[in-house]
Amino acid sequence: MLLRYNYRVYPTSGQQDALARAFGCARVVFNDGLRARQQAREAGLPYVTDAELSRQVKAAKLTPERAWLGEVSSVVLQQALADLNTAYRNFFASISGKRKGRTVAAPRFRSRKDNRQAIRFTANARFKVLDNGRLRLPKIGDVQVRWSRTLPAVPTSVTVIRDAAGRYFASFVVQSTDVPLPETDSEVGIDLGLTHFAVMSDGMKVTAPKFLRRAARKLKRLQQDLSRKTKGSNRRKKAVVKVARAHARVADTRRDWQHKLSTAIIRDNQAVYVEDLCVTGLGRTRLAKSVHDAGWTQFTTMLEYKAARYGRTFARVDRFFPSTRMCSDCGRVTDKMTLNVRAWDCPCGSHHDRDVNAARNIRAAGRADLNDRGAQIRPASVPAPRSEAVTHRKLAPSGV
């Protein structure tokens, strides 16, 4: 399994200037390749291949207008073209229906004002992690790295990233071997929500931390300070960085918390089942801010790849499965309930907590999906009471 390991790096002022040149050169090569393909399409010419774009970059280095492209590693420029090729492949696969999910837009031009700048070095660039802990990058130098943990294997590539907060990161791609955990008999269904971030089928509830809501007062003050600054001034640039750092702190805290929770769930359970929520649709409702603050998609993605890495079972239950309205004891499906109904009673006599009942139904549905004998996901037919039957004896035709 390919995994990414991110580490904070601290380049010197001279190394920051070299990285800025590399970011700019990669951006120019990407934009030149995109412009060449767009012009060829408008002129009715054949699609410009990657090999032709690579030859154009080599020829551009010999011209006075693009001679500064030779100041950076050639691998950085080739990887910029590879990113352009990947963007086109994703776009073509999306419009043809081969790529699932939302439609991917056509590649756009990169800007120097983009909040995120990145360059990538592959093994051909001969980057190296030195014995003293520094990262040697070609034509940049030995960069100081803060190693929070050791790399499990030799990295195949490294991406240097500068985020909106002005921080630098090194993202290593490592081929990691799966390490199965000892088997356990526990299985859990998880119902994700807003009041409680996760409700387990065993009754445990995890309160939603609401990191963005907790930082709302500070973010509001920083945004007000930013709005008072004159556009184009240095003070406005400093205020933008302060806002970006506050948002980065919220995102980092949420990610760290979700990593710890997902690791604990995968370690303690042999199988994990969650509901396939439509976060995009929920993001268009009045609860959009709370939905995005919860970060359900990121959390379920963590559960999925950690389950694959540690030999656990992970499954998603259909989003249209009536987990909330179904009785986990008798299987009866009741009418729709509003969000303010947190508990309900089934005609069979069972009293249910709304979220715990949904988690239990998600666990049962996940088990049925993975059952080799083809067990049904939906409950069996329940005879309706005589008072609710459609056909009455007095309305039946004669002879019946």
TrEMBL record:
One biological process term in Gene Ontology: DNA recombination
Occurrences of domain Cas12f1-like TNB (ranges): 296-362
Probable transposase IS891/IS1136/IS1341 domain span: 173-282
Residues covered by the Transposase putative helix-turn-helix domain: 1-44
Family: In the C-terminal section; belongs to the transposase 35 family.
NCBIfam families: guided_TnpB
Protein name: Transposase
